[in-house]
Design a protein that fits this description.
alpha+beta
Length: 64
């Protein structure tokens, strides 16, 4: 199994912003759907690759 893709979840007015990399982010209303949303987003970047089994670790950002 490959290393999981670590995604930072940052709360915002309409749900969560999912920071995948410095240049890539997507949004989701509920963290319950975050992993699927990240995989769907990856599919828009690289439609030739099946991302359905990509391990994704969602880490909520906590205010200090």
């Amino acid at each position: 199994m490959s290393e999981p893709l670590t995604v930072t979840a940052r709360p915002w007015e309409h749900g969560w912003e999912l920071i995948i990399s410095e240049d890539d982010a997507t949004q989701v209303r509920s963290l319950d759907n975050a992993v699927d949303q990240v995989r769907d987003y990856l599919g828009t970047l690289d439609p030739e690759t099946d991302h359905s089994a990509t391990p994704v670790l969602v880490v909520p950002e906590v205010a200090a």
